Amino acid sequence: MEHTSHNTHDSREGDRPIRIGGTILGAQRHICAFFRSHDDQYRVLLPFIKDGFKWGEKAVHIVDPTRRDEHLQQLRSAGIDVTAAQQKGQLDLLEWADVHLQGGFFDQNRTRAIIQEIRGRAREQGFERIRFVTHMEWAIEHHADIDCLLEYEARANLVPSDDPVVCVYQLPNFGGDVVVDIMRTHPMIIIGGILQENPFFVPPNEFLRERRGPDPAGSSLEDRRPA
Predict the structure, then answer these.
(1) Residue 226 to residues 116, 171, 215: CA-CA distances in angstroms?
(2) Could you give the C-alpha distances from 117 to 2, 120, 197, 200, in angstroms and in order?
(3) Burial degree of 130 (CB within 10 A; 0-12, 13-18, 19+)
(4) Burial class for 164, CB neighbours closer than 10 Å (0-12, 13-18, 19+)
(5) Cβ distance 163 to 129 under 8 Å?
(6) pLDDT tens-digit readout, 53-100
(7) Is the CB of residue 46 less than 8 Å from the CB of residue 74?
(8) Does residue 199 carry a pLDDT above 90?
(9) What is residue 72's three-state secondary structure?
(10) How does 77-112 read in b/e, with b if 16+ C-beta sit within 10 Å?
(11) pTM for the whole structure
(12) Cβ proximity of 185 and 148 under 8 Å
């Protein structure tokens, strides 16, 4: 079966600048984005999302199911024709249970396999780039083990990808020690609405060696949630 390219410009995706948080994104595409409110989140991310639609790129949004309608309304407010984008396969709006919490719990190997399947289907559809946006509160709501979450985030850096991946963390929901650990697994960070290279980033192999040490607390993210 022949697939039609979704490019809407003569240059290829790899030649186009990716603008987010007031900056052009470089070769490192794994971003942790910290926000204090949902309004701040959409103020920063909607231009990035809209640019992807303009260039004919694929959008994969993995959202809190309780915020699905709000998310769709935010996309529409930015002038995005959500119905048309979904019908032509340009927008995949997924919920946590479709990806990270499939089967009711988090399994990092299964989640990585699902993400690879999403990428494979997008390439078959003719999309050369995917812009991922993921709401990460599932880790709090479902008491994810922090070591599993951090290993999952670190391993995302082992295989470079041209696809920008924005992991969205609402700061009021995560304790300060958890935030620091999360920062160490992302080469790029958005904080205060600005994208910058993350000075706290630790290369994945080094980070994973550190995490293999004993963790007598065996804590979950719920244990380290702000009081």
Answers:
(1) 33, 10, 20
(2) 19, 5, 29, 31
(3) buried
(4) buried
(5) yes
(6) 999 999 999 999 999 999 999 999 999 999 999 999 999 999 999 999
(7) yes
(8) yes
(9) helix
(10) eeebebeebeeeebbbbbbbeebbbeeeebebeebe
(11) 0.86
(12) no
Domains of the chain, with CATH numbers? 27-213 (3.40.50.300)
Q: What residues contact 154, with CB distance under 8 A and at least 6 apart?
A: 185, 202, 204, 207, 208, 211
Where do the DSSP E strands lie in the chain?
Answer: 18-20, 23-25, 30-35, 58-63, 91-95, 130-135, 165-170, 188-191, 194-197
138 three-state secondary structure: helix
* Residue reference for tokens 């390219």: 5
What backbone phi and psi angles, to 5 degrees, belong to 112? -60, -40
- The encoded tokens of residue 20 equal 């987010």
Q: Which residues fall within 8 angstroms of residue 23, CB to CB, at 6 or more apart?
A: 194, 195, 196
CB 161 within 8 A of CB 1: no
Q: For residue 95, list its beta bridge partners.
A: 63
Its sign, for the CA torsion 178, 179, 180, 186, is positive
Query: What count of other Cβ atoms lies within 10 Å of the Cβ of residue 23?
Result: 15
* Crossing angle for the helix pair 204-211 and 146-155, to the nearest 10 degrees: 160
Residue 214 vs residue 119, higher pLDDT: 119
